[in-house]
Structure formats: structure tokens, C-alpha cells
Amino acid sequence: IKLFADGAVLEEMISAYKEGVVKGFTTNPSLMKKAGITDYVSFAKEVITHIPDLPISFEVFTDNFDQMIREAEEIASWGDNVYVKIPITNSYGELSIPLIKDLSKKAVKLNVTAILTLEQVQQVVDAFAPGTHNIVSVFAGRIADTGIDPIPTMKKAAEICHQKPNTELLWASSRELLNIFQAEECNCDIITCTPDILRKLSNVGKDLTQLSLETVQMFSKDSKDLG
Ligand code: E4P
């Protein structure tokens, strides 16, 4: 499985790139807002100057499909490593499938995002033009947030995606390190994780008795600080 970094903090993205742990990047408007970005285009172009050779997804901002086409073409022109993120619907709930077909025919590399159902996965995979490279982002964490185990959905989504060459399934909205192993078990091609989850990679293989001791030591230290 390929690890991607999910975020919009330039310094964190550059250090993840330099460390070589991740093989690509995802961003979204909410992550950019959280990072305090006010000029989307300048931010994106700066990111690409630092990260010119790994896949990176930038999302369209508009709600209107005619404008979205133009915005998507502009985003695609920023670099060969850029995937244009298209939400599965606009914010009025209108399906983006006609737009996806259009852009895919023009060979724009797409990352279709905010997918939560297998019906959406099938519609998106059917819409991709033959010979194009695309990512299907299924929000496993948001499925889990409703109390439903996302694993059966992700396994089936992988089967659907892999019917079409060069279509990669991405496990999105990761919530914990365990998700990396679950995504691998589901045959996902990619999982994107926030820096706080990526930092926990150093825990893999850790002795649990030692971890128990460290936990007690943390409680002990903090209780002293309570006075
Ligand atoms: C992926 O590309 C998305 O940006 C991200 O994983 C969404 O995460 P969230 O559901 O926690 O907002």
C-alpha cells in the first residue's frame, strides 16, 4: 500500500516529502482553511515547486459545473503530478458524473472525493475514460463515524476499482494507525493519513509491556505536575 500525507501545512508537507515516508499528498478546502491559507492558487503553486514529482491532489472550489470544468483544467495545468479532486456531487447534491466523463475524456487525472457508497464507486469507475489514471477516494473514516464497519465496503470498492486499469482506491479520512493495516487487508492501493497519524508509525512493533510502563510513567509525571 502507498502512504499519502493528508494536510495543507507547507512545512509538514515538505518534511514528509524529504523524509521519503509518503508517496503522495492530498489536500482539501477544509484542511486549507484549518492551515490558515487565504490564497489557494499561490499556496498550491508553491507546494508544487517543492513537490514536483509525487502525486498531489488539489480540489476544485466552485459549485457550478461549468465553472468547475474550467477550474479543473486550470488545476491540471499546474503540473504533471497534479490530480484534480472532484467531489462526487456538488453541494446541492447534483451528481458530478457528467463532469467526470468530460474531464476524463480530456485525459485530466482525477481524484474523485467524498465517496461513501458502493453505488457511487461503480458510477465513478464507469465514468473514467479508458487509458486514464485516476484515484477513487472512499471516506472509510466517515463511514466508521456512523457506526458501520467500513471494511466490507472497502473490500468491494477495491474489486470494483480494479476492474478498470490505472484506477486506484484510496482509503480516506483515516482515524488511526490501525487503518493502514486495514486498508492493506482490503486491497486499497493508497491510504492518506494526517501528520498526527504518520507520527505514530514509530509505534509499529513496539513492546506493549514497555508501552504500559510508559503510560504509567506519563500518569505519574502528570500527577506530580498537579501539585
Ligand atoms: C482525503 O483526501 C480527504 O482530504 C481526507 O482524508 C478527509 O478526511 P476527513 O473525512 O477526516 O475530513
TrEMBL record:
Top-level lineage group: Bacteria
Keywords: Schiff base, Transferase
Gene Ontology BP terms: carbohydrate metabolic process
TM stretches of this protein: none
Enzyme Commission numbers on file: 2.2.1.2
Keyword presence, Transferase: yes
InterPro entries found in the cross-reference section: Aldolase_TIM, TAL/FSA, Transald_staph-type
GO molecular function: transaldolase activity
Keyword Transferase tagged: yes
Stated name of the protein: Putative translaldolase
Organism: Caldibacillus thermoamylovorans
